[in-house]
Specification:
By secondary structure, the protein is α/β, with parallel strands linked by helices. It has a single domain, classed as 3-Layer(aba) Sandwich (Rossmann fold), CATH 3.40.50. The protein has six helices and nine strands. It has helices at residues 28-48, 53-62, 83-87, 105-117, 131-137, 231-244; strands spanning 2-8, 67-73, 91-95, 120-124, 144-155, 169-179, 189-196, 201-210, 213-218. A nine-stranded mixed β-sheet has the order 2-1-3-4-9-8-7-5-6. A hairpin with a 4-residue loop joins strand 7 (189-196) and strand 8 (201-210). The longest helix is centred in the first third of the chain and has 21 residues, at 28-48. It binds zinc ion (ZN).
Length: 265
């Protein structure tokens, strides 16, 4: 049984400017604009994910016999991730957007260390800027973006386990354009490459290993698009959970004095 924890930001769905999260003071006009954006996004999200984006992902994995899933959110104590939960997580799936700053550095560091020990990490869409991924990859993870585009997702590593059951190409009628340059270290595999109407291309599905842990970043999944209802997207996420799940969690990588093994005569 793979123990999957989904960390979902759960801020935009509420549609309110929560001063606990957005502590900086905006100029009045800007604050009004931002509050308006939050309210509008919440309305749009309700149409696409009436039960919530996080809950939609949770419900999908609940139906799987070999996966046990737990959904946690930023507004829970300790941002939803206690030490105990981290110790009992094989794969952490992460969706974040406008409140990346609200995740404490200390928690990001704990996640970083747990990945080095073998925990799988799947980072979705705007989570490209989340603290744990930036710590693990060591780059800014910035990119170009434009909302409301059309995407063709090309399978560029068809033999990879994450690509199993996925056609050479599938289309997303509406998805946010993410374009290069995506400031990431060279991936081990670029499993999917996105093409957009503006002609932009993007390394949409990338893998890395860090320590004993496997990492998958996947671009589609803008909050107001029905992306997480798409059968291929869900199949890719299923495959990614299985691929990133560790055989076991290791001790922290460390320098060990090693006696020379006996030479066979
Ligand atoms: Zn987005």
């Amino acid at each position: 049984m793979i123990r999957l924890t989904i960390w979902y930001e759960n801020v935009q769905e509420k549609g309110i400017l929560d001063k606990n999260i957005f502590q900086e003071s905006f100029p009045e006009e800007e604050e009004k604009k931002f509050a308006g954006f939050l309210a509008k996004t919440a309305e749009e999200m309700k149409k696409v994910y009436p039960d919530g984006l996080g809950k939609t992902l949770e419900d999908h994995f609940k139906a799987k016999e070999d996966i046990s899933v737990k959904l946690v959110t930023l507004d829970m104590p300790g941002c939803g991730i206690t030490d105990e939960l981290l110790e009992n997580t094989d794969v952490l799936m992460w969706w974040s957007h406008i409140a990346q700053h609200a995740v404490p550095d200390e928690l990001a560091e704990k996640i970083h260390q747990r990945v080095l020990q073998g925990m799988g990490l799947i980072v979705l869409h705007s989570g490209h800027l989340c603290k744990p991924l930036k710590l693990l990859l060591g780059t800014s993870c910035t990119l170009r973006w434009r909302e409301g585009d059309f995407e063709r997702v090309w399978t560029t590593a068809p033999t990879h386990p994450i690509a199993q059951g996925i056609p050479p190409m599938f289309e997303l009628e509406t998805e946010e354009m993410y374009g290069e340059f995506f400031d990431i270290p060279k991936p081990d595999d670029v499993i999917f490459t996105g093409w957009f109407r503006g002609g932009e291309v993007f390394r949409s599905g990338c893998t890395w290993t860090r320590g004993y842990g496997k990492i998958f970043y996947f671009q589609p999944g803008h909050e107001t698009n029905p992306t997480y209802h798409n059968e291929y997207i869900l199949k890719i996420l299923d495959n990614a959970v299985h691929w990133t799940a560790p055989d076991r969690i290791h001790d922290k990588p460390d320098c060990i004095h090693a006696e020379a093994p006996e030479i066979r005569k």
